[in-house]
Structures are given as C-alpha cells and as structure tokens.
Design goal:
This protein has 88 residues and is mainly β. It has one helix and five strands, in the order E-E-E-E-E-H.
C-alpha cells in the first residue's frame, strides 16, 4: 500500500480536508477516487511525488465531483441509465 497525503476540496473554494490515506497505487491526474464505500467522488487535479518523505509517498490534490454526472458522461448509457444495444 502507498501512503498518500490527500487534500480534497469543493470546486471554487479553499475548504481543504487533509488526510493520510493508503492506496493500492498512487492516483494519477484526472482519475477519480473515493475515500470510502459511501463517500463523495473526487477528481485528481495534481500529484506531487515525495520520495524524500518517510511519512508519505505522494501528495494528491482532488476536487469534489458529482458522481452521477461523471457516470452519465463516461458510461455508454442512455439518459435513463439503461442501454439497449441496437435500439434507436
């Protein structure tokens, strides 16, 4: 596991929440992450690798996003959330 100092905020604000989290790998810019099963979703804005630190491997800055809008934009589904192959 990789220790990451995660900084999250809402778009257009500096209301930072700063926590140490462990990830299977260090998140990359533009990826999405969640901090728990029922948490908000965040999009990674900036990654700073910190090989000099014994406390963490990277600092990750991420902005809160609307998971429903992300899924609608990224997934091949109709607006209703159901996709029928071959349907008009």
């Amino acid at each position: 596991m990789h220790k990451v100092f995660l900084h999250t905020h809402e778009k257009g604000t500096a209301n930072w929440v700063n926590v140490i989290k462990e990830f299977g790998r260090i998140p990359l810019e533009d990826e999405y992450l969640a901090t728990s099963v029922d948490s908000e979703w965040y999009q990674v804005e900036l990654v700073i690798h910190t090989p000099f630190s014994e406390e963490m491997e990277a600092e990750v800055y991420a902005v809160k996003v609307d998971h429903a809008k992300v899924k609608q934009k990224k997934l091949s589904t109709s607006p209703s959330g159901v996709f029928f192959p071959g349907a008009p």
